[in-house]
Amino acid sequence: MTSPLQGYTLLNTRAIHQAAPLTKYLEKHGGNVVEIPLISMKKTSDPKIKEAIKMIHTYDYIVFTSTNSISFFLEILKEQGLSKREICNMKFAVVGKSTLRSLNKEGFDADIIPPIFDAEHLASALKTELSAGEKVLYPKSDLARDVLTRELHKVGIQIDDPSVYETVFRIDDKAKLNELIKKNLIHIIIFTSPSTVHSFFSQVDKEVVMNNVDKLHFAVIGSVTSRALKDEGIEEMIIPKEFTTEALVHAIMKHIK
């Protein structure tokens, strides 16, 4: 029996430390995967996170909207002399299943996970659970949207949102990336964040991409990533109903069937 993705070459643009699970899942279904990480992450030196950790037990919730925010937050927590035991009785909210899995791997569970995996629905869930005057710690990326902060402020919920990591465009494989696009060696390009979209278009010859757009499929996770791609002039794309890598791969297979 022919595998669904057999004969297709897919570009995985995720950061190096996150690329493997998606690649394995695509290869499991017969895809030929090229990994070109377009972003990398590094720990930030934002002094606000250190101040927040000093008063960690004054927060009613700790909120995570990415797997990276969890790992960097816990790294900084340890650097400040605190162990995970210090926060084991605190309440957590996460944006989706991937973030929940990362939290579970660290020994914690989430008290809030929204029905739709985005910041807007997470904010709604938190507003239902919390009252004015209560406090939220939201460790985030330097590029995170302000939706959560803005929505909670509207209803009087205190929120501290220090950056725990920075997202950096990775240009190590720029020449390889352009060669693959120019020679039409890629059939499907996968973007899992707005940052991967912005990094991609900052490195490629956009005219070449647009001239070959009828030969390319674009697949994205999430409404924010799809908006970033639309801003670059790409209207046709594959978007799963559920914002997970598993759902994305199944949406790709359904699209090309």
From TrEMBL:
<dbReference type="GO" id="GO:0006782">
    <property type="term" value="P:protoporphyrinogen IX biosynthetic process"/>
</dbReference>
<dbReference type="GO" id="GO:0006780">
    <property type="term" value="P:uroporphyrinogen III biosynthetic process"/>
</dbReference>
<dbReference type="InterPro" id="IPR039793">
    <property type="entry name" value="UROS/Hem4"/>
</dbReference>
<comment type="similarity">
    <text>Belongs to the uroporphyrinogen-III synthase family.</text>
</comment>
<dbReference type="InterPro" id="IPR036108">
    <property type="entry name" value="4pyrrol_syn_uPrphyn_synt_sf"/>
</dbReference>
<dbReference type="InterPro" id="IPR003754">
    <property type="entry name" value="4pyrrol_synth_uPrphyn_synth"/>
</dbReference>
<comment type="function">
    <text>Catalyzes cyclization of the linear tetrapyrrole, hydroxymethylbilane, to the macrocyclic uroporphyrinogen III.</text>
</comment>
<comment type="pathway">
    <text>Porphyrin-containing compound metabolism; protoporphyrin-IX biosynthesis; coproporphyrinogen-III from 5-aminolevulinate: step 3/4.</text>
</comment>
<keyword id="KW-0456">Lyase</keyword>
<protein>
    <recommendedName>
        <fullName>Uroporphyrinogen-III synthase</fullName>
        <ecNumber>4.2.1.75</ecNumber>
    </recommendedName>
</protein>
<dbReference type="Pfam" id="PF02602">
    <property type="entry name" value="HEM4"/>
</dbReference>
<feature type="domain" description="Tetrapyrrole biosynthesis uroporphyrinogen III synthase">
    <location>
        <begin position="22"/>
        <end position="249"/>
    </location>
</feature>
<dbReference type="GO" id="GO:0004852">
    <property type="term" value="F:uroporphyrinogen-III synthase activity"/>
</dbReference>
<keyword id="KW-0627">Porphyrin biosynthesis</keyword>
